[in-house]
Structure formats: C-alpha cells, structure tokens
Amino acid sequence: MTNSAILARRLMRAHHTAVLATSLPGDGHPYASLVLVAADHDASPILLLSDLAEHARNIAADNRVSLLFDGTRELPSPLTGARLSVQGRAVREAGAGRRMRFLARHEDAAEYADFADFAIYSVAVGRGHLVAGFGKIEWLEGTDLLLPGAGGMAAWEAGAVSHMNGDHGDAIQDYAQNLLGATGAGWVMTGCDPEGCDLRRGGEVLRLDFETPAFDTDSLRQRLAALARAARAKPA
Question: What is the pLDDT, as a whole number, of residue 43?
Fold first, then answer.
C-alpha cells in the first residue's frame, strides 16, 4: 500500500462532487459535467445519474469515463495541491448496497433517487493519474489504487454508524470541531469504510481519516476511541 495510493483514495473519499468526462456519440468530443459522488468501501466511485442527462446518454453509447477529484480549492497557489483523474467504466447497478452509501452521503438526493429515470452507477476503476504537486506525478493501476479486502464492512457498517450517532454524538462533535476545524454543532456520521468515516451537517461534509485501516468492528472501535481521546485532549 503506497503513500501515493493512500493519498489518491483520500482524495476520492473526501470529495462529494467531481467532474465527470464522457464522450459525445458521433464525433467522440469530450463532455465534462459536475456530478455528485460517493465512494464504496474500497474507494470505487458511486454516481447517481438521470437517463435524461447528457452524460448518461453518453455512457449508454460508450461507458468509458474519467472523474476529476480536485484537492486544490482555496489554496493560494492551486497547482501546488493534489488532484486525481480516475479512468474507468461506468456500470449501471441494480443492488441496494451502493445506493445506500450514495444516499447516506447525499441525503437530499433521496427526494429524486426513486424517479424512474434515475439510476446508480459504479465506476470500475482502470487506473488513476495522480498529481500531488509540482513534479509529483504518476499513474496508478486500479489494482493498486483501490483498497483490497474492504467488502466485508458492508455487513456491519450501518450498525456501527447507528451506534455512533445514537450513543456517541458528543464524540462526533469533537471529531468535527477539534480534529477537523469545523464550527457549529449538529454533525452526524453518515458512513464508514476501512480508512475513515464521513461526517455531515446539512450540506457540509467532512472526512475523518484513520492512520491505519480498520477491517473489523474491534479495529474500528479502537480507531474511533483513539480519535475521541485525541479530540478531547485538543482545545476547541
């Protein structure tokens, strides 16, 4: 597990929007659009798209896509920041698991997710192009970019998130305010994966990363408890 792959996954997991590039039928001209995005447990991107949208019609003809995750926002010199372009194929999904993860990240999308023209897509990642600043540029194959062994978390993630929100809401506020620099109360946990947790308050989202992955409930409990202690020890 290389540092580059960890950084790339952190970019994918932290962002709730991305730029989606597809190809227009006929001349193949690139078409870029802003989309909402979530990440599966292994960091594979998840999208909710309308069949009426230009990018969905493009995917129906050619499902090769690219997603840009931009970590340069608000930097005084944007080109010093990290960004990742992910190449892969968008695959329409029929299962409930990825839909649940997407809607947990984007609560407002539940208002239209059941419309007949909307569908969940997962991106089967082929490779990624990481630019981590001037001169720090490399390609990562999908097998190196994604996190192996992450699928088992799907069986118990919902219970862990429910427990945290129901019994440890104070710790979640401490994570947001003392570790991640957020202001205001009302933060909730919306999801977990082996490398961290997602927090939300209204339209704001935050990413709480772990130093090392947690692939089972005991490891997750240990990571969250250690972060809670660190958050309490740090002045707000």
Answer: 97
